[in-house]
Amino acid sequence: MSKTSAPTQSPAKRGALFPIGIGIGLIALMAMLPLLNISLPGILPTPTYMPGTLALLSLCMVFAALALSYNMLLGTAGMLSFGHALSFGGGAYLLGMVLRYLEMPLIPATAVALLGGLVIALLTGSIANRIGGVPFAMVTLAFAQAGSVLVRRNSKVTGGEEGLSLATAQVPDALVGVANTRNLYWVLLALLVFVYLVCLWVDKSQLGHLVRAARENEQRVQVLGLRPYTAKVIVFVIAAVLASLAGMGYLLLQSGTVPRAVSADLTITVLVMVVLGGVGFRWGAIAGGVIYTLLDQRLTVLAKTDAIQALPDVLRVPLSEPLFLLGTLFILVVMFLPGGIAGTIDKAWARARHRSAGPAVGLTALDQAEAADQQAGPGADTRP
User: Coil, helix or strand for 302?
Assistant: First the structure.
């Protein structure tokens, strides 16, 4: 009696489950960090359970979510936007104004602000996507500059240059104050996971396949009878709404917002995050957002240390400027890691799998040829 062996998972299926397991493990670890006493000197200012570190990690998650939404535009649809900060800052300002002037509770105010962000995204996206390439980037930049001017000039509504503070009376007490930083951290972690899942859904859907095809050859997609313009507008709106959500998280975390949240400078910063992490890689956008935010915050502290201040001027001046160091890092990544962090790791992983799977591929080919001979029968010619 022959024994049937238990079915085993194929290497491809195991390879697909591996990143899922890593992702779930990382989410679980991040969720437990506020309950753990982990110290990373030089990276985190305090142990992980303290409000200072939780606030820094929360800011990293906000910008990771923003980078994910921008990666959907640039990496998936191939749209180079210089106005993505309009959605981020628009979400922050809209929520802040609804809370302050309409005195609505947080949840309904979030829905109203999201609706307003969706309308703005639909208007700007339908106009900007009439053209492509550099003109598209310039149109989005013009919209962002217009939004920045409106924010800065309407001081009675938006607070002007001083920014708009959070109306804490309309926010649940569990999300207000330094003592509740842990709760806000968990909310922003859930926000990051939600943004990632939406980006994953878009990438795997027919919509994602269509905009990627349009990115490669839009004219050919039109010849096939499809409508790439509609698909690009939908992706633009989804990315803008996700950026608005990140802006709302920023408002809650910072207890207010400032005009820089709407400026084109922030869009360029997010572009650097995505390029640093790897364009087209979701986890790369998260890594780029986290690494850039950590460096931006911690290099500022490093520049004020006695060791840096004691250096000669030729070294002290550049090392005291975090933007100089971040710019240098960006240049080095573009020169030596053109695929970003994720692209470089992905290529190395693919080469390693190719080497390890080489003999197996050959044996599989021999097995398939033998099976074909048996099916053809004796005397049959199976040569191509």
Answer: helix
What angle, 0 to 180 degrees and rounded to 10, lies between the N-to-C axes of helices 264-277 and 340-376? Answer: 40
Helix, strand or coil, per DSSP, at residue 164: strand
Give, rounded to a whole angstrom, the gap between the first and last alpha carbons of the chain. Answer: 39
Encode pLDDT of 252-275 as tens digits.
999 999 999 998 889 999 999 999
Compute the distance between CA of residue 379 and CA of residue 84 in angstroms, rounded to an integer.
Answer: 67
Whole-angstrom Cα distance, residue 66 to residue 246? 6
Residue 49's φ and ψ, nearest 5 degrees, are -85, -5
Closest CA to 242 of 191, 293, 284: 191
pLDDT tens digits along 173-198: 999 888 899 999 999 999 999 999 99
DSSP assignment string, 184-247: HHHHHHHHHHHHHHHHHHHHHSHHHHHHHHHHHHHHHHHHTT--HHHHHHHHHHHHHHHHHHHH
Please give the helix or strand (H or E) that residue 21 lies within, else none: helix 11-32
Angle at 349 between CA 343 and CA 355, to 5 degrees: 140
Among candidates 374, 383, 372, 353, which has minimal Cα distance to 11?
353
Residues 276 and 83: their CA atoms lie apart, in Å, by 19
Compute φ and ψ for 197, nearest 5 degrees.
-65, -40
